[in-house]
């Protein structure tokens, strides 16, 4: 179907402001009476504060206030809260007198300049009483370990099971263990926020680069015991999140400062603080066993997962449990058994990361599938085609069928574009030893399109025609910098046949918008976009009714085109929708507007299949990605250029996950070794491969114009595809991420026989 705006490339809504430097992020906000906040973080991994002396800091000229646990609320809260009443583990306070990791918040200085605040931090003295620290999961699990919370460090997740996995008698039973490391999100913009308290109205306002203005509001209102109507949260321009800004982290500190001083207070995290004192990606240990027939048909899967939560539980229990759902998004497993546990450790807090378990599940499952293919002597693409889902039950506990499933199409189209068979044959002839060995790999992954069917997923919004014919939209959006505002504008424009620049659409503000969960679970395009489409269609109906009265004809005889209404059999008579808005207000005594709510009742399959070729230097252990194809079932690309850009960024991020990135801590003390980007190796533009993107567009679901989610699933297949390619090149069974050069060199020093693949046995490690 031909569209006027949908499917055409368009820059993000704030591109001009970003490239000119005129756009303001939270950290750029300035006022004449602004104060600056700097945090003091714990220097030990576990212990209690016996005494904290802030006298010298308070005496420093320019210091307005020093905050500690002694003069701030002791309300326990959970940083991942969205709704007011959620069954969460309220374990955290703004400042603590019992520190649980190196980086725990113990104090903050509020001063007239950041430099004075930083100097004052050095004047605060703390007497700690150390407690035994559990830096590793193994230490935390030990019977004699010091409980970090409650009576035990192990938080068990109820077992989930489909069918009777244990009774399945399969010819082949294959087990692979995969571990992933603690990672930093590496957003271009570190966490920042500004808080202000109006004493006259007793209103707290917070400007934050967050993913849920209503989630931040509910958390702050609970902490400070304030009416929700007296807490306003405004979402600012965001320079990336990848899940790191999903939770309420810095906002309570800035709010406490504003409440204590009655002046606007800005808190901007340094890169070190962003790494150690906000949130990191969970270290995960995942053992997957697949039962299959000799011809490769899957009979069942069992996964046993352990997550390192760090010092506070936050979303870790939900994160572990959600991995279960990710098992049923690409392959048909007649039986599924899932065990998981979350372990507290005295490490930095683990939390949300792009994909919410999709990349972890993909790493564990795909590593096992690729290893099983080698064991069976089967082509990994063929093994996948034999087992892809074709309309399975998505969430079997809710008996909801997964519609619009196109994993197999992604496999076929990606395989063809990559030239899988040709590359496989060519590499089998080329890999005859030597320093550089090449291999190819494939991996698939799936994700979701919102909360349904786990919980209801509702969006409420309104649209109003302005006097000049533009349309004002009230919708709570949280654009991460990926173009969500532009995407929603294009959807509305397509329905209204109105240029996107005539659609006024802002972002989240609790005082202006209807309630919304926030930007989670890849729900923006599929759920909010569908809500926008529905609301725009209702507005068209209202415009036609108004035009019918204006022209003295039935609404069914009204046509709309490019912002004008006319009678179908008298096209020379027309009126702009702006004129109709004035007419409605002046003559009909009402605004030309609509209010609409949409509740999602679908969560179609969304998947991606990635193909990679790598070259491994057997002298250095360095891996170079040489070719990459990503095929994605996207339903309909609303803004294809931005989708390709997202995919490029996802591959770049995924290469880092697979090959270079890890946040290290001292295993004895818990002190961060990685406390900046100097020794945190991200993949830069020079190292990037050209990524060929293939969209499988089948408009057969309830998303707007058939659109599905894309931003999160895009990263999930990257790491396992690269791991498969490295193993194919070297004849290894590496599954512990990242595959750093020492890991590869150690594997080369003790090579294992390869059951099948493109490469021959590699040479021994060079001296």
Helical percentage: 25-40%
Please give the radius of gyration in angstroms.
28 Å
- Count of domains: 3
The DSSP helix count reads 18
Uncertain parts: 394-398, 755-767
- CATH hierarchy: architecture of the largest domain: 2-Layer Sandwich
Biggest β-sheet: strands ordered side by side in the sheet: 3-5-1-12-9-10-11
Average pLDDT rating: 93
What's the β-strand tally?
30
CATH superfamily of the largest domain: Aldehyde oxidase/xanthine dehydrogenase, molybdopterin binding domain
* Share in β-strands: 25-35%
Question: What is the top-level CATH class of the largest domain?
Answer: Alpha Beta
Termini separation comes to 62 Å
From the spread of the alpha carbons, the general shape counts as globular
Describe this structure in words.
The protein is an alpha+beta fold. The protein has three domains: 186 residues, Alpha-Beta Complex (Aldehyde Oxidoreductase, domain 3), CATH 3.90.1170.50; 317 residues, 2-Layer Sandwich (Aldehyde Oxidoreductase, domain 4); 148 residues, 2-Layer Sandwich (Aldehyde Oxidoreductase, domain 4). Helices cover 27% and strands 25% of the residues. The protein has a seven-stranded mixed beta sheet. Strand 9 and strand 10 form a beta hairpin. The chain starts with 14 loop residues before the first helix and ends in an 18-residue tail after the last helix. The C terminus is likely disordered.
């Amino acid at each position: 179907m031909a569209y006027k705006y949908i499917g055409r490339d368009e820059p993000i809504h704030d591109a001009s402001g970003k490239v000119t430097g005129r756009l303001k992020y939270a950290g750029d906000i300035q006022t004449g009476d602004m104060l600056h906040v700097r945090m003091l973080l714990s220097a030990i991994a576990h212990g209690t504060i016996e005494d904290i002396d802030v006298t010298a800091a308070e005496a420093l000229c320019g210091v307005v206030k020093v905050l500690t646990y002694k003069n701030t609320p002791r309300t326990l809260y959970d940083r991942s809260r969205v709704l007011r009443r959620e069954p969460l583990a309220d374990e955290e306070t703004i400042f603590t007198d019992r520190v649980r990791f190196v980086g725990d918040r113990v104090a903050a200085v509020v001063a007239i300049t950041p430099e004075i605040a930083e100097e004052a931090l050095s004047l605060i003295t703390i007497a700690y009483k150390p407690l035994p620290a559990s830096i590793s999961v193994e230490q935390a699990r030990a019977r004699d370990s010091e409980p970090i919370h409650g009576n035990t460090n192990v938080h068990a997740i109820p077992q989930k099971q489909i069918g009777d996995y244990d009774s399945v008698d399969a010819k082949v039973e294959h087990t692979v263990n995969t571990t992933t490391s603690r990672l930093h999100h590496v957003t271009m913009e570190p966490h920042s926020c500004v808080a202000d308290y109006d004493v006259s109205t007793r209103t707290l306002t917070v400007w934050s680069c967050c993913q849920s203005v209503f989630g931040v509001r509910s958390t702050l209102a609970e902490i400070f015991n304030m009416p929700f109507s007296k807490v306003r949260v405004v979402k600012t321009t965001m320079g990336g999140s990848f899940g790191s800004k999903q939770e309420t982290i810095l906002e309570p500190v800035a709010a406490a400062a504003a409440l204590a001083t009655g002046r606007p207070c800005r808190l901007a995290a340094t890169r070190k603080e962003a790494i150690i004192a906000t949130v990191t990606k969970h270290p995960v240990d995942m053992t997957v066993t697949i039962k299959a027939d000799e011809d490769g048909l899957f009979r069942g899967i069992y996964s046993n997962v352990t997550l390192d939560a760090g010092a506070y539980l936050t979303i870790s229990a939900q994160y572990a449990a959600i991995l279960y759902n990710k098992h049923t998004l690409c392959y048909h497993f007649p039986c599924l058994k899932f065990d998981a546990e979350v372990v507290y450790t005295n490490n930095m807090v683990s939390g949300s990361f792009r994909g919410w378990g999709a990349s972890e599940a993909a790493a564990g499952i795909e590593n096992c599938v690729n290893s099983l293919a080698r064991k069976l002597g089967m082509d990994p693409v063929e093994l996948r085609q034999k087992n892809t889902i074709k309309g399975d039950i998505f969430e079997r506990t809710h008996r909801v069928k997964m519609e619009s499933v196109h994993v197999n199409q992604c496999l076929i189209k990606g395989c063809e574009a990559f030239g899988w068979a040709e590359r496989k044959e060519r590499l089998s002839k080329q890999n005859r030893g030597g320093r550089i060995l090449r291999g190819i790999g494939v991996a698939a992954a799936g994700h979701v399109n919102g909360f349904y069917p786990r919980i209801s997923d509702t969006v409420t919004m309104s649209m109003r025609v302005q006097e000049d014919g533009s349309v004002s939209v009230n919708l709570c959006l949280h654009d991460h910098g990926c173009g969500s505002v532009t995407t929603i504008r294009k959807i509305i424009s397509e329905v209204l046949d109105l240029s996107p620049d005539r659609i006024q659409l802002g972002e989240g503000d609790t005082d202006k918008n209807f309630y919304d969960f926030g930007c989670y679970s890849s729900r923006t395009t599929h759920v909010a976009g569908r809500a926008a489409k529905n609301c725009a269609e209702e507005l068209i109906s209202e415009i036609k009714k108004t035009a019918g009265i204006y022209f003295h004809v039935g609404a069914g005889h009204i046509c709309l085109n490019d912002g004008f209404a006319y009678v179908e059999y008298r096209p020379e008579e027309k009126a702009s929708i702006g004129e109709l808005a004035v007419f409605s207000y002046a003559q009909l005594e009402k605004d030309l507007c609509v209010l609409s709510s949409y509740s999602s009742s679908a969560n179609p399959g969304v998947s991606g299949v990635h193909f990679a070729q790598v070259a491994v230097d057997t002298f250095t252990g360095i891996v170079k990605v040489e070719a990459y194809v990503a095929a994605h079932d996207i339903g309909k690309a609303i803004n294809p250029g931005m989708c390709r850009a997202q995919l490029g960024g996802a591959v770049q991020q995924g290469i880092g996950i697979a090959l270079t990135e890890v946040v290290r801590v001292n295993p004895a003390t818990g002190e961060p070794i990685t406390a900046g980007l100097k020794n945190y190796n991200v993949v830069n533009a020079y190292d990037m491969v050209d990524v060929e993107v293939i969209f499988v567009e089948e408009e057969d679901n309830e998303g707007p114009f058939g659109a599905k989610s894309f931003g999160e699933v895009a990263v999930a297949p990257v790491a396992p595809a690269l791991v498969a390619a490295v193993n194919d090149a070297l004849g290894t069974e590496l599954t512990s991420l990242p595959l750093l050069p020492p890991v590869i060199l150690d594997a080369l020093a003790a090579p294992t026989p390869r059951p099948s693949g493109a490469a021959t046995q590699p040479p021994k490690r060079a001296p």
